Amino acid sequence: MREFVDLGVSIYDPDFTLNPYAYLHDLYQHEGVVGFSSEGMQFLFKFDDCRTALYARQFQRGQENPAAFKREADYASRYTHRARHLANHFAVGKPDLKLKALVVRMVNTIASTASFASVDNILAKLSRPGRLDDYIEEITTVPLRIFLETAGIPYNDGDLQRLHVSGCDFIKGFEAMDDEALIKLMDDGSQVVQSFVAQRLESVSEDSVIYPFIEEARAGGFSEDNIAISLLTGPLIDTSNTFGITSAFVLRTLISHKSAWQQLKERPELIEQDNVIQEILRMDNHVKVLSRSAVDEVDLNGYQFKKGESVSLFFPGLNRDPAMWTNPDQVDFSREFNSQNNLIFGGSVHTCVGVRLSNTFMKYLLAGLLENMPDAIEVVEDEIEVDGSWLAERIITRMPILVG
Ligand code: HEM
Q1: What is the pTM of this model?
Q2: pLDDT tens digits for 299-343?
Q3: CATH code of the domain occupying 3-403
Q4: If you measure from the C-alpha of residue 286 to the centroid of ligand 1, how many angstroms do you get, rounded to a whole number?
Q5: For strand 41-44 and strand 310-314, is the pairing parallel, antiparallel, or unpaired?
Q6: What is the pLDDT of residue 92?
Q7: How far apart are CA 322 and CA 46, in angstroms?
Q8: Beta carbons within 8 Å of 156's beta carbon, 6+ residues apart
Q9: Where are the chain's structural domains?
Q10: How many other CB atoms are found less than 10 A from the CB of residue 206?
Q11: Quick one: the chain helix, strand, coil %, rounded to 5?
């Protein structure tokens, strides 16, 4: 009989967010432990269980029970931008795989044509001695800047800040079924980006990278809503609340794991290897919790889920499962990743559309750090601030850095 055991700390506690392995390492060993409970919710955190929940047809994204359907219908009538967004951007049920394939091709084209010259000055700041208090505010907007510039969508600094904040607000409501304040924040976030897109869509020029994809979507019979949300609003929001937020976690990992940093300096060619990128993202990234619910009764490696029962998957837990990785709390560039041991970008039908774009961002970030970051650099750990009481992601909102 497997059971969920009390974690003994809030899932929202910043220390748990920043050091999850310290809280979980004993729990991995107990076969009777299927997961942990915290804040009245249940979380899977072992790799095999999470993989089963992501791949088994009996589990679907979101909540699948009458109370959740009723609440969702109520939200949809009052939070219309959120509803429009969710209906058009793979968020509920199964994604439209034809539309998803088109979005992936568009995002991959942006990845292969992106130039980072306009943001090199941001990384150069790491080479100047002193204390950087607001550095992550700048570095976390780089992916959005690059996306807008490469896609040929005009923006000014005010747009950039508003869009970035809106992308982060949007994700706060993503797994927050019961918290209406977060649902409203999600609605507001989507509204800001939707109206930005509405103002820009008609003026996307024919020679921009995204124009052929918009035309292809129209010719393929996709609706204007599909196009505005899936091709534009979605990726703009996702770029901020994915790699934007992840940049801060990556910076923290590389600054605080000195031997990994030395290896990269001695062998800079490592940054071209996908497994090196995966390993840095395995250590930490923005994805914290994603939920699934059982559409049927299902046995999860010895734990019985009832139809309609929901469960959350704690990604930092599965990424550090010692059954999968020796010394999981250490960076090890010799690790090899494959479809059996890697869920960093999800799995099955909901696999991430931004894998290649993230790899491009990551290579740029690593190259820029190698060029600019000195060995004498520290994160002021006890001044790190992590945003809030919401589930899907955690945002490092403050991370002072001391450059020696
Ligand atoms: C470090 C970078 C990233 C990581 C670790 C990551 C991780 C993930 C994971 C774990 C999922 C699966 C969600 C689920 O199963 O419920 C996912 C889905 C998704 N990601 Fe990413 N992601 C990253 C970057 C991006 C970027 C840059 C974009 C935007 C262009 C993006 C767009 C999406 C979308 C649209 C989905 C939903 C796909 C679907 O449901 O079919 N991601 N991502």
Answers
A1: 0.96
A2: 998 999 999 999 999 999 999 999 999 999 999 999 999 999 999
A3: 1.10.630.10
A4: 10
A5: parallel
A6: 62
A7: 9
A8: none
A9: 3-403
A10: 8
A11: 55, 15, 35
